[in-house]
Every structure is written in C-alpha cells, then in structure tokens.
TrEMBL record:
Protein family membership: Belongs to the ABC transporter superfamily.
Topology relative to the membrane: Peripheral membrane protein
Protein name: Cobalt ABC transporter ATP-binding protein
PROSITE patterns: ABC_TRANSPORTER_1, ABC_TRANSPORTER_2
GO CC terms in record: ATP-binding cassette (ABC) transporter complex
Compartment(s): Cell membrane
Species per Swiss-Prot/TrEMBL record: Streptomyces tateyamensis
Length: 535
C-alpha cells in the first residue's frame, strides 16, 4: 500500500537529512506504529505519505514514495485527498466550519461529490464514530476526545484508503484516548484502512500495532517488523516493555495483560522489599492558596468552590478528564482569569490584580500551546530576551535549554521547531526567572521518553530548591515518576487529593502500567522495581 524506495529528505540549512535511506513497504489494512526519539524524522516521514513533504514544507525529497501506486512527489496533497486522510497533533487547527455535521461534509464538498452521496456518508460516519448525538454541536463546545473523533471523521467521509495520524492522543485524558484508539482499531479491522500512526506515549498504543516502524535517529536504517522484536532494538519503549526486559521475559510483553500473566515470579522476588519513594517533599511554607475559588468561563463554572494550598518544594500532579477545569485553575493562579467568587493568592499577591512585572517573578505558566510565549525570530533571541526579562546572567536560559533539548540550533525559528522543541524552549524561558510557583499545562506533550527524563531531573532540582510545582497532565507515567501529591478534578471540583502513590493506585484510569502489572504490590515505576531487585 505504502512504499518507500531509498527515501531521503534534506531541508535547507540543515546539517543532516531529516530522513535518510528509508526503503520498505507498509502492507494494506494494517496499523503501523511509527516510533523513534524526538528529531528522528517521524513527522517528516508522515508528511511524505500525505504529500505535505515537500510540497508544503519545502526541502528536497530524494527517492520515491508511492501510495496505492501514486507518487507523492508528483501528486500534491489535494491530488491525494481522496486516497490519504491526515489528522495532525492539533485537530482544531484543521477545522474550517462551525458544527460537527458541517465539518464532516466539508471535505466531500471540496471534491464535488453529489449531495445524496454526501448525506449518506455523513450519516455513516456519525454512526461509525459515535457522533450522532453531537451532529449539531458547535465544534468549540466539544471535548478533546470528541474533537479528535470529528477530525478523523472529517477525512473518513471521503473514504481514504490510508489514514495518517500524528500524536492523536497527546492532548487527551486516558478515557478519551481509549475512545479514539477504539475508533482507529475499528477502521483497521472492519474497513481495511491502512493506518500510519506516530505517538510518543507508546504505553497507550503499542498493544494495538500490527507492525512497528522504527526510526532510530542514530544513523541506523529504518526498521519495520514485529512489535516485540523491533522494540527490543528501540531506544524508546513503554514501561511495560522496559519492565519485561528488566525481568528477563522473552518475548517482551506489549500489554499489561501479557505482563500480568508472567508477573507472579517477579512479584515473589519483590515481596517484602520496601518501595523507594519519590524524593520526599518537605511542604512547610505555603506558596499559593485558593479558598472556595469559583471561576466562570462563559455561562458554566469551570472551577467550583475549590480550596487548595500549594507548598514550597512540593510537586503536585493535577489530573482529570478533558474539560474538568484544570487549565482554568492554572490560568487563574497565573492571573489570566478573575475569580467569580472566592480568592486566589500567590506569594502574597492577588494574581488577577497584581502588576505583571511583579507577578512574573513569583508565578510562571507554560500553557498547552507554548507558541503563546514565543515571540522572537530565533531560539537565541528568545533565550536572550528571557535572560533580560528575568534579570538573569546572560546565557542562563540557553544553558537550561541545552539540558532540556540538546542540539537545538540557535538560529532556528521557534515556529519551525517540533511540538516538543517549542515546549522545551518555552519551559527554559519561564524557568529562567526562578518563579516561586511553576504551573505546567500538559508539559510532556510532544516529548519522547528521553526528553521526559531530562524534564523530570530539572523539575526535581527546582523542587529541592524550594519551588512549588503544579502540573496538569494526562501522563500518568510522569505523575508516578515525579510527583509527591496528586489531585483529581471533575466538573470543576476536587474529587481526590493525597499522596500520588495512593491516588493513582486507587484508580484504574490513572494507575501507571507497572502498578497494574504488579498489583496489589505498591510499585509504580520501572526505576522503583530495579532498585527493589538490586536490594
């Protein structure tokens, strides 16, 4: 179905090709998971299939990519629209209409299909994706999982034979992610659609893959094959696979179910061993406090009578489904929203009334879209401006960035960076000021496992130095590895608040993979298990 013949892609001014020597074939009717470290060329490879590379992104494409016999170098994206459907990391960015039904019909209108055909296909797609009750709903009123399903539906109505998905679950809570992945499985199994999917959170998707396409990013050629065999050679792997390697299991497990079937001997080896805790917090000094805080966003309260205290040196995970009010709470603590009732105080300041130059030294927010913080023309200029704004020694921001994202070019434009690259740059910018309270909204979106490990190290150091950190996240593995405390929000209210290990293990939704495999024992991460076995 999709054939790569000695494919390489070279962008202007880049020191090395984004892709080099890719030579393989992806069969029809399979789910192929694309994995590899950040910067390995995953988005570029997806772009060569849809025709966005080189027609939209520029660069030089060497070799040949064919999809059902069509050469994507000779066919522009519009010439492939009936064959290849593409859904990017931000589904809202591709919406062009106002309601669900209009969005599903738009692609067919562009191709000039007959009204009767369009009506039939819209109804079929509404039923296939479970969207019938939402047909007249404004797109702006949908949850993250609903938006992702609508984005997939908008390309399915033209009946593509290939579906290209770039990070389809990166912004979704665990429940919404399962909804989207169930739809993808149905397309593959029932309709014979060929799906090429790139995803950093491998723990969510690896068990569904028929094949894995690995881009190692270290000079080795691309590798396509059986998921367990390929992951054994991969520099990135989900926790359940890393646990299987640690335990010496062969073949490596791809799902929690597979691992649990073999975990009894491992549980016996770990019986009686003490679980190494996350570096202990010493919460003593309150940094931020919300008291019966209510915040309205439009007609509906997004935060309802919420009371919360955050302490210096404490790292807190804020979890909950999409639309629970997490981003609104972070924005209120950062001064972006005025409370409807109740109070919010950060380092003695009322955020929405404080002067920006006073507030920025006490609280920093990295939003879901880091582009909101980036205004300079180059990475170097962004770092220099951050040093100046924070009154920091020149080079401070660049040093932080080098730790978070080694190899990021000084002259690169922030808008040309990957999702992960923009996020790490925004993180470096806000961390330069050394705020008393750091607020992070989905801080691992677009980051691979190595980048997450670097982020964990830096946030741990900041907490040890006294910074209070509140991070809203759907990444349960990050919460288990990093945080001392976990909060769960639902409909604007706090429904859980306690030590992270207690909160996540009590929930089948928020429990990390290791906890599910080794339950009822209280292990959360592969690192903890390795330390337990070493003892």
């Amino acid at each position: 179905m999709i054939t790569f013949e000695q494919v390489s892609v070279q962008y202007p001014d880049a020191a090395a090709p984004a892709l080099a020597g890719v030579d393989l074939t992806i069969p029809e009717g399979e789910l192929c998971l694309l994995v590899g470290p950040s910067g390995a060329g995953k988005s570029t490879l997806l772009g060569t299939v849809s025709g966005l590379v080189p027609h939209f992104t520029g660069g030089t494409l060497h070799g040949r990519v064919t999809v059902a016999g069509r050469d994507t170098r000779r066919h522009r994206p519009r010439d492939l629209a009936d064959l290849v459907g593409t859904v990017g990391q931000d589904p809202g960015a591709q919406f062009v209409t106002d309601t669900v039904e209009e969005e599903l019909a738009y692609g067919m209108e562009s191709l000039g299909l007959a009204p009767a055909v369009m009506r039939r296909r819209v109804e079929e797609t509404l039923d296939l994706l479970g969207l019938a009750e939402l047909r007249n709903r404004p797109l702006a009123a949908l949850s993250g999982g609903q938006r992702q399903r609508v984005a997939i539906g908008s390309v399915l109505t033209v009946h593509p034979r290939v579906l290209v998905l770039d990070e389809p679950t990166s912004a979704l809570d665990p429940g919404a992610a399962e909804e989207v992945l169930a739809v993808v499985q149905r397309l593959v199994h029932d309709l014979g659609t060929t799906v090429l999917l790139a995803e950093h959170r491998l723990e969510r998707v690896v068990q569904y893959a028929d094949r894995i396409l690995l881009l190692p990013g270290d000079g080795r050629p691309a590798q396509l094959g059986d998921p367990a065999e390929v992951l054994a050679q991969s520099p990135v792997r989900p926790p359940v696979v890393a646990l299987g390697e640690l335990a010496g299991w062969s073949p490596l497990p791809l799902s929690v179910r597979d691992a649990r079937r073999r975990a009894a001997p491992l549980r016996e080896r770990l019986a009686g061993a003490a679980v190494p805790p996350v570096a202990p917090a010493t919460p003593a000094v309150p940094v931020a406090r919300a008291t019966r805080l209510t915040v309205r966003r439009g007609p509906i309260p997004a935060v309802r009578a919420l009371t919360l205290t955050l302490h210096a040196g404490e790292i807190t995970a804020l979890m909950g489904r999409n639309g629970a009010g997490k981003s609104t709470l972070l924005g209120t603590l950062a001064g972006l929203h005025a409370p409807t009732a109740g109070t919010a105080v950060v380092a003695g300041l009322t955020p929405h009334r404080a002067r920006p130059r006073d507030l920025v030294r006490q609280v920093a927010l990295v939003p879901q879209d880091p582009r909101d913080l980036l205004a300079a023309e180059t990475v170097a200029a962004e770092c220099a401006a951050a040093d100046q704004d924070a009154g920091a020694r020149p080079g401070s921001c660049r040093a932080l960035l080098a730790r978070l994202a080694p190899g990021l070019a000084d002259q690169a434009h922030p808008r040309d960076l990957s999702e992960g690259g923009r996020l790490t740059l925004a993180l470096a910018v806000v961390l330069t000021g050394g705020p008393a309270l750091l607020l992070l909204d989905e801080p691992t979106r677009g980051l691979d496992y190595a980048a997450k490990a670097r982020l964990v190290a830096i946030l741990t150091e900041l907490a040890a130095a006294g910074t209070a950190i509140l991070l809203a996240t759907h990444d349960v593995e990050l919460a288990a590895e990093l945080t001392h405390r976990a909060l769960v929000m639902a409909d604007g209210e706090l429904v859980a608040d306690g030590p992270c290990a207690e909160v996540v293990t009590a929930s089948p939704v928020y429990a990390p993979q290791v906890a599910k495999v080794l339950a009822p024992q209280p292990w959360l991460t592969v690192r903890q298990v390795a330390e337990g076995l070493a003892r």
